[in-house]
Design goal:
The complex is a heterotrimer of chains A (292), B (331) and C (244). Chain A has 292 residues and is mainly α. Chain A contains twelve helices and two strands, in the order αααααββααααααα. Chain B is mostly helical. The two termini of chain B are 38 Å apart. Classes of the chains: A mainly alpha (292), B mainly alpha (331), C alpha/beta (244). Chains in contact: A-B, B-C.
Amino acid sequence: MISASLSMLPAAIINGLMYGAIYALVALGLTLIYGVLHIINFAHGAMLMLALYAAFFLFHLFNIDPYFSILIVTPCAGIFGYMIYRYGIGPLAKGKDQNILLITLGLSIIIENGALFFFSGDQQTVNLSYGFEAFDLGFMYLSYPKVISFFAALLMCAILWAAMSLTDMGRAIRAVAKERQGARLVGINVERIFAVTFGIGIACLGAAGCMMLPIFYVDPYTGNIFVLVAFTIVVLGGMGSVVGALVGGFIIGITESVGGLLLGESLGQIGISLIFILILIFRPTGLFGSKV
Amino acid sequence: MTNFRNHLYFLLLGALALIVLPYFISSRFYIDVLTLIFFTAYLGQSWNILGGYAGQFSFGGVMFFGTGAYVSSILLTTFGFPPIFGIFLAILGGAFLGLIVGYMSFRSGLKGSYFALITLAFAELLRVLANSVEFTGGGVGLFLTYAPGLSNLQFESPVGFYYFALILMFISIAIVYWLESSRFGAQLVAIRENEDAAEALGINTLKCKIYAIMIMGAMGGAAGTFYAQKYLYLDPPIAYSIHLSVEMLLVTIVGGMGTIFGPLVGAFVLHTVNEIARHFIDTPGLSLIVYGLILIIIIGYLPNGLIGAFKKKEKKSDSTSLDKKTSRGDS
Amino acid sequence: MLKVNNVTKRFGGLVAVSSVDLEVNEKEIVSLIGPNGAGKTTLFAMVAGFLKADEGKVDFENASVLGMRPHQICKLGMVRTFQITQPFAGLTTLENIMVGAYSNTSETDLARTKAEEVAEVVGMTSLLNQGADGLTVAGRKRLELARALATDPKLLLLDEVMAGLNPTEIDDIVTVIKGIRDRGVTIFLIEHVMKAVMNLSDRTYVLNDGKLIASGTPSSVAEDPQVIEAYLGHGAAEAMAEGA
């Protein structure tokens, strides 16, 4: 039993890496929002679920390939995020940490049950023409969608990183993250930067949703699964750290698949919450962060 | 002081009304709804002690409920241990879990959103554990036998559970009533308002917060036994559901955190809204959408909940607090 | 009563407090002055248990308090106030002071009596039922003092209780502090307002860039060239002129 498990270990690790890249993208959005706004978006999972549904309906109704949908869903998610911060979360929270947590909790309840109300509780998946084709690595088969998603997620992370370091908006965002008051003094509209950052964070989810749909399913509760996953990656990597989100994403992806392999389907899920608790208690700055 | 006495009379009158109410209501539906309101108000009150008074928000309050439910149910199914005693072990179990979670998180200085999230993770951890080990019945769940009788804390008529829930709620109100006028309560509030200042003034903030979460845990434990004996079934998604964690904080925030009657008012309002919404459109999810909206509106516009809004009106008509708006230019 | 021995605190590469020695004797009013950023509040934080010293010893009544948590130190009879006032904003003045009073009694009635008594000492009786968030700056400073006093301390550590007050308010609070000393409480205070310190303290220490540069009676310290330089160097000439 154990030896059988061990022989499947490389496959589990590679599978974990594939999912890890997408997790990293999800966590990147969360960590970006935290790094700049210093708030925790509890609705992150629920918004990811919405992105999955968006990709699903684009495929289902208009037969648009999920990977092509990235080009549609990502900007829409970005605008959605911008609006919801600018006209919802921002004005309502009045800057209090716990208020934002509760407001985004309220949002996640609304989104989750809105999805249940409109889309029913059924699990939805897409069948792509190339969905069952796979690369033969010798010791395992790796389906096309997994590989495409892996590279798409990495590409998206690279684009985001480039945008953050090369564009004026990126520089302004980093300025606000570093020194809020200073940025305000030199004439940066901090409130607008907050909303833009929130938009970018949600745009990451838009892209991640499209990449995730071909290798996963969607139902109204999908978000719940990813809330803790995303938070765990972010605290593991260090709140606000981009490199941390990437490395954290891979670690969690691998932990999940290897944990599932060695501990079984049910107990395997324990890794995420255990890591989350241990990190918060023993190393709250995470692996790459400087300060919580 | 006369004000306080009036208050007390009013309270006793209200309590009396709730005690005799079942004699005037024949509808099983209303009895059940009221039972549920008391039960949620009770759980909300347990959240209120740590969240409303001590200012430490938890997103995983359900863990005490679930653990208590498993303690008394497993004792009953494996050893035939009667729930009327089992409930006390459930209380102990909840308090002990509170000690562990409180010590681990408060000791490492977690507060605000981080504390909220770590409690969520603890609840999730316990859900996975309960799903994976055998003595909880795993994913299949635990089935309890229906055998009405006081020693089983089961009742033939729904009125029995009505009184069970009512007693739990009365006890929770008594605890918070004591808190309001005791040193411990004042210390919790001081921690909520400013932890550094509290510590400087000689309050062992770590110990107080741990005591608060242990009280919450103990109360949650008893709620677990109540639930198990009423519904006779338990599985990990029920025992450690995020939904119940949210409901605890929801009723308290809607009614008013850090107030004696906040959780009761909140539970009453939300359950009424829920029943009305269900009456018109019985589709899954709708009432929760309304809950979410109410939560956001309350946080945005009525940070002190419904009770706070009511009190503010009272104060305004007082008009003695004119000099409240004087200088506050302290940095 | 309080002995600080060779205490040092570093933040990263910066030495905030460097090998400081000082002593406060019973029934004294001792002040610690120095320009902004000299390390005064950091030193206080270490004495009161809010920060851990990297090196050195802190003894209170001949017993080390190093490594103790603030509430334990408070129980021994040494309590601090905060420069940036930290009221329990949602509570009334009375309730605020009662929190301090509860450190010696668990009886609500006793705590209330004690709080009312302390309010009388600091002159807040008329404000007892007012919300703490509605107090003026002067009111908040007094509240800090009152809450600390309600714990029945032997030694009060006051962190800039006069900053932000106008001259009349300063005179008032100086009288209050003297009154507290006359009741047998030793006082160690950080201050930026030189004039008040001159009138108030028996002895003064001067801290600059984390190091003690002078100590002695207020008048001798005020004439010390090193002190003048330290203050002038940091653009505090006006404070000096006002003080001398």
